[in-house]
Structures are given as C-alpha cells and as structure tokens.
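Usage example:
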Amino acid sequence: MSSDSRGCRLLSDLNSVFRKDPEIDEYDFLPVLEPKHNRSPLILQDHKLGLEMWSVKILHHYAYNTLMTWRMKEVNAKFLGQLDLICLTRAIVLVNPDCSTAWNIRKELIESGDLSVADDLKLGALVLGKHPKSPETFSHRKWLFTTLVDSCLANSSGSTVSNSSVNMYNNFVNMDAIDVNLDPNVQNGFNVEPSSKQPDFQEHAFKELRNCQKASDKYPSNYNAWSHRIWVVKHCLNCSLQVLFGELHTTENWVSKHISDHSGFHYRQFLLTSLQKQSIDLKEQFSVCYKNLIQKELATTIDLIKCYEGHEALWYHRRYIFQNLCQSYSAGTLLELFHPQHEYEDDIVLNISQKKTKLENERQVLLLKEIDTVTKSDLTSKDKFHKTLAQKYIDWIQKFSRSLES
Amino acid sequence: MKLYCIEVLFKDSNGKVRLLAATHDLQSFGYFQRSSVKEFMDFTSKIIVERTAICSRSSTKEQEYICHVYVRSDSLAGVVIGDHEYPNRVAHTLLNKVLDDFTSKGPKAQWSISNPGDIPFKELDEYLSKYQDPKSADAMTKIQSELDETKIILHNTIEAVLDRHEKLDNLIEKSDGLSMQSKAFYKTAKKTNSCCVIL
Amino acid sequence: MNNHNSFNHHVKSRSEVSNISISDDDAPINKKLPKELLLRIFSFLDVVSLCRCAKVSKFWNLLALDGSNWQRVDLFEFQRDIVGPVVENISKRCGGFLKSLSLRGCQSITDNALKIFAQQCRNIEELNLNNCKEITDVTCEHLGKHSHKLSWLDISSCQQITDKSLKALSDGCHTLQFINISWCTRITNDGLEAMSKGCHNLHTFIGKGLTQVTDEGVGYIAKNCEKLKKINLHSCTNITDDAVQEIGDHCHQILFLCLSNCTRLTDASLVSLGQGCHNLTTLEVADCSHFTDNGFQALARNCSNLEKMDLEECIQITDTTLNYLAMFCPKLSALSLSHCELLTDEGIRHVGASACATEHLKILELDNCPLITDASLEHLMGCQSLERIELYDCQLITRAGIRRLRTRLPNIKVHAYFAPVTPPPSVGNGRQRYCKCCTIL
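Running the assembly step on the lines above writes:
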C-alpha cells in the first residue's frame, strides 16, 4: 500500500502539539495549499492551533487508512495500542467529525478505561468549535453523558441523582436574576447524598449548555445544537423547574439578538411547554402563574416584532405563544373542574357551563384584541415583507379561532 | 445581530478614498481568520465608498453581511458593517451620528491629508459596543422619523456595486491592502464546495 | 471470529450426545488416508483452520484438536474475545505438547486460567503475557513451580507484577534466556537481585520504564548475568553513570544497549561503555541530554563495530561527534540525529566522506536540525547505500536541494514536508471514504 510518507509525521506533529499544549481551545485550517518551506504545517499560538490546508488531507488520509486497516483486521494491519488509537481517532474527528467509526472506537476506549469521559468531552467541544453542526459529535456526546449518568447512579447507591442535581443548580444560576420568588425551604423533597462524582456531573452538564450556546453562535439556526440542548435539559437535568427558569432567562437575551433563528425560538417553546407541564408545581413552589409567563413572552415577542421588521421566525414564535395562551384558558377550566367545592351535581353542571361561557368570551376578546393590534401596527408597515407576514398571521388567527369554535 | 466595524473615510475630488478612523469587533470570527476578515472589511469599505455618489446612502449585502455606506455632501464618508439581522435604519442613523461627531474632532482641511489615528476619535469604540444592541442604543421610534429609508440604495452583492467592466476577483488580486494570506483565504473560500466545509 | 468458541462448544458436545451424523466420518478422504497422515496435514494448519476442521465431523474434531497440532498458539488476533475458559481448555487439550503460547493483549485472562495452564503445559518454552493486565504474582509463582523449561517470557505492562514474581521465576526457571518486564513499575532492586541470582543464562533483559530501579539493581543484573547480549533500560529514569559502569565492567559480550530517556546519565557512561563493551553494535541514547562530544569521542574510539546509533535529542553534541563517528565507526548503517540542533553542514560533510558512507550508511535521520542546508545533501551524494533520509523541519532545506539529491540517488526515500516527487497513486480499494461530493479528500 503506497501512501504519502508525510502522514505519519503529520500525526506525530499533531500529537506533540497536543502534548505541548493540552489547553488548545480552537483550531482552524489555514489557506496554504502547498508547503512553501520544509516546516511543520501546524502552528500553535495562544492555545489556538492552525493547520495548513495541504496537510489536512494527508493527515486525514493516513489516520483514516491506518485505523480502518486495523479495524477490519486486514493482513497488513499495523498493531495499534490504546494510545495510538486515541491519537488516530483524534486526528480523524478533528478533520471529519462525522466519522462514526472513530467516535465508536473512542467509546470502546472509554469502556475499557483507557480514555476518560472528561477528556473526550473536551475533544468534542474543540471539534464543535470548528464544526458546530456535526451530528455525530452531538450523538457521541449524548452517549458520553449517558455513561456519566450511569456511573453517577452506580456511585450514589441508587436513587437521587436527578433530585440532588436540581439542588446543585442554585450554585450555577443567579436566581435573583430570575423574576421569581424562590423559597429554598419549599424544596423539601430533596435529600442530597454526598458523592464526589456529582458536582463533576453537574459541572459537565452546565458546561454542555454553554457549549450548545457557543455552537449556536457559530452557526445560525443550528438545529443540532439546540436539540442537543433540549436533550441535556431533559435527560441530564431532569427538566427541573430551576433549570427551565435559568434557561428561559439566559436565552431571552440570546433570541433578542438572533431574531431570525427559528431554532432558538423553538428551544424557548420547549422550555415553556415543559414549564406548562409542571404548572401546578410552579404555582406551589414559586408562586408563579404559567399564564403570566406566557403573557410576558408574548409581550417580548411583540416588542421584538415592532423593533425588527420582516423576520419570519418572530412571527412563528408569536403564533406558538398565542396559541398556547388561548389554550391556557381552556386548561384553566379543567383545573377548576376537579376542585371538589360543589356538592350537587346539578350545580356543577351549571357552574361548568357558566365558566365555559365566561372563558370562551375571554378568549374571544383575546383573539379580537390580537387581530386589532396586528392590523393597527403591522399592516401599516412600509416594509412589504413585514406586511405579508402580518397578513399571514391574521389569516392564521382567523383559521385558528374557527377551529376553536367547531 | 452583530456589528463588525465602523469606519470613517474621506473621498477626494478624484474619487480616491482614504481611511481616517476605524474600529472592529471580530471576536466572533476564528482566531486565524481575524486579520484577513479585517483586511477584507477595509477593502470592501473602500471599494464601495469609491463607487457611492456624494450625498447618497447604500446598503450592500454580501452573503450574511451587510455593508452600510453614507457619503455626505462634504465628501466625508462612513461605513458600518453588520450582519443581515441588523436593522438598516439603525445602521444609517449610527452613520449620521458618527460622521457628525467626527466633524467636531478636527478641521475639515485635515481630512484630505490625514491617516488613521491622526485625528483622535476614540468614541468610535464606544459607538461600536453600544450599538451592538440596537434596542438599548437608541430609542428606535425616534429614529424612524429622522431617516427616509426609501433613499437608501440596496444592492444584493458587491458585484452589483461594481462597474460593468470590473470583476471582484481582479480587484482583489490587484489590491495592495490585502495580504497574500487574505487572498489565499478568498480563493479557498471560493473553491469551497458548500456541502464540505473541510477544505 | 468465533473460532475460539468452538473449544467451548467442543468440550460440551463431547460429553453430551453429539448430533453429527456418523456418515460424515465415512467420507472417502478418511478411508484413503490413515489417521497419522491426516494428523500430519493438520499439523501444518493455523489456529483458525484447525478450528474450522474441528467442525467438519466427529472424527476430524478429534484429529484437529489433537494436542500435537497445538505446539505453538498465538491468540493475539483474538485478544478482545479470549476469556479464561478458552485458555483453560487449550491447556487441557494441549498438555505437554504446548511449547509456545502468546496471550498478548488478552486483557481478561486471570491468574486462575494461567494456573491451570502452568499445571497442564509443563513443557512450555515461550510465553507472552504482554498487557494481560489482570495477572498478578500468583501467575509467576505457578510458572516458577511448574515451567522449568521456560526460556522466553514477556510480562511487560502487567502492572500488578511485583518483586515476588521475579523471586518465583528465579527459583524455578533457571533456563530463562529472555525476559521482558517493561513497565512493571512495581519492580524494585530486590526483584532484580533475586532474578539475577537464579537466571544466569539470561541473554536478553528488557526493562523499560522501571522507575524504581536504581544503580544497585542494574548492578546485580550486570554482575550475575554475564552472558547478556541485549539490555534495554529505556526510561529507567533513576539510574546514573554507576549503573552503566557496572554494565561496562561485566557485560563484555553485549551487542545491543538502549539507554534512551535515562536523563541522568553523563559522559562517564559513554566512557565506561567504551572501556568494556567493544562488541556493541547498537546503541540507543535518545534524550540523554548531558552527553557531549567528549563522551562520544571515548565511545567511538573503542567501539568500532557500531552499526546503529540513535542520538535523538542529544542536544549538546556538535559536528565534532560526527567527526569521531566518521573516523572510528566504519560500519555505521543507521544514524539518528533528530533534534541535535547544533549540527551543521560541516558535520554532515564528515559523515559523507567517511568509510561507512559509501558502503553501509542506509538510514540517516536529520529532522529538526535547523542549521542543516542543501550543502549537507551535496555532501551525502556519494552515499550509494542510502535508502532513507529524514529531513522534516530542516527549514533551510529547499525543494531544489532535494531534487538534486534524488537525481544522484534515485532510489532514496526523502522525508520532508514538500510533496514527494512522484505523487503516490491513491489506494484503489473500493471502500467509500467520504461523501461523494468531496473529491478533495
């Protein structure tokens, strides 16, 4: 098998760069298409690694072929030790992060104890800096976190990882910043078991949320990053109220700076839906009414629409919020239905029908008001596209209100 | 939404353009790309100001960036480069303010002979950071009345600004302001297949 | 790959009722060829083929798994899948036939399996347990008790091994000639003392990364094992010149010595080697940064048989060292000078003009020697045997210089960052490497 003899050297150059500086936090390919000097094409500056482009291809080709001949147990395969595998797979994923074989070999190395989860999380974060969308990298990280959760569960003799992780959250989020009345005594259900592993896990999970944010900064409408963030909130942080609040707070500023990022708004919709599911706890623990949250979100969205004309993402977010608000009126009915204050069935029936009419009236008012606001402020806009969006929104409301009636 | 740079330039009677003051915020770009990005922003500012008539405004889109230009009647020109989300009218209001402010910093006679830094204008950095958030920077409603947006000439690419016989590739090749590395960056970026960001 | 499973399968099915039809055993081949001939044929087969044959019929199963076919077993290829019972079954089946076993990298093998092995296979001569991380001193105790014919043993990277193991081996394995205990970091001087007293026949001692071992330990080996031809003490960071002096004083037959990354050594070591080890052909002293021209002068004057030298990162050496090597070591065929940053074209001129140059010199590594220029390449044009030259990161070397060298020495492999002259043809197997749109990679 003939191949460029430089591949081997480039790999060892890469390894020595990482040995020299384990804190490399960014890498990039430099536009040098041909070696101009007999000099290593890897440049290290201020924890940033630059690879001249001509070398990237050779390095990848070498690392990939070496790894694959080994993996497929071909006759001429070189013997590879654990350290070799770590280095080869690193070289491959830096160039092509969607090589799942490389990530899978790293999974095996973690299972055999030759590679630490923390180190692999670090590599993945580095990769995401250059390839912020890479689906294989995100899916590998899901695996890493699952492994971490499992090892925490095993270490804490069972039960309360997710609960105690909720408690830990207060260390990471400034709750004052959230407009919520938070009484720590209310969280009586939680008992923290001391375990050295857990703060570690917490830190990783919150770091992961920040990594997702970085990836979404790097690439607009980064669906992969945002859905990974949802996964982390769901599976690592157990959708706890505190986390949801914290995230709602931190992303508010972000979406107001990225007004055409559908994925960012979708994430907020996920947060709100999750809060809605726990709206009873919400009221008990924080004396926050879900309806108020959704109303605040609507106001913010309307404000953004007013400031920044002609952005479709904002209008779609408005649709979601408004629909949610309307639904919260009917959800309210159901809640009251189960309040056993009524002694006679006749009374209940009467009451329910009265309440229903009342709510339906309120909802009707809400619909009319929404149409009115849009007609007055947005349909008069000079921006043609903005006007189209506003008109579409009104059409949608009318369709939506008809569906409510029927 | 992001602002990357603000520049003040002077366009002399021969149509030649000289840079008087500039500030950049390139943190969102990769470490190794920043110097080239800066060179390209300066280069773009220059060629667009050269091709923008006195007493006129333009906003030129190039990929996800927009370059806002205003050349005043006294030949003083301002450039703001932001992303596509940044509202045009805020960018142009910012240009008004920057140019007014700059005028008060030194006599007009100096404009045609100054180099960047000769006329101190450190407020430029403040403008750049303050206007990152257009909502808090200024009451947006006030802006609407001051500026007639319909007078801004819109271009969809830099190529659209150029004269018919000009080619962007040639201009870049000939430019003194761009380093070899930046030219290489441009070439490789052009070559890049959109599905494959690796090379 | 589940050939090894057939061992398990076989052992079970033999005791139970086999459902293989008897007619298979009546196949013509079994009638034509006597059992002995079939056995003889099987003896040429490898492990995988034998296991396949064992599945053919009851009769073949018996023959294929006959111990006489299993004298040399290497399970390295199946390292991930090998578990204790497999080794136990092999041991029981092979018994005294087994002479050579490699379990290299079989990480799930434990003492228990090796205990049974040691008891069953008493004629074992070669045993490779490299990286069997689970094994402890217990294994070596059983080897010491039963394996008296053992001559070749590799227990490198078995980190639970301690001095006790070496004591046990010393008690029972007097014929040991080769031992590799690299990276068994718990081993101390005591272990080496014990081993050296029992195993006088050692000719190869490989003990890389024995960080607890000091001069005393090396001293025992040198004094008691005078037949040593090969010693490797790579990264034994606590040894000093005294250890090397012991080697020089006692091991006169030594041919190969590696002292790379023994960072405390000084020129005195080279002087000792020059005095005592005249037969030395290979010396590796990478990263011994205290070595200077004086030391290499003493060495070169006395060791004229040197063929291979690794001086990577001996950062103090200058052209003077090259001058001595060129003058006194006419058999040099491989010389590594990577990262010897003081070397200049003048030094290479000496090498190029030396006796070794035209006939013997095959490999020359000059990577990361920043002062080397194209002039060095001119000096080397007479080295007709030169097969490979490393020039990575010699920043003064130009494309043109390399081109000139290649016209004089057309078969040489020049390793530099410049693209090779003839681009290697891309590997033509059909594996899909990348998304189709990316023809670049």
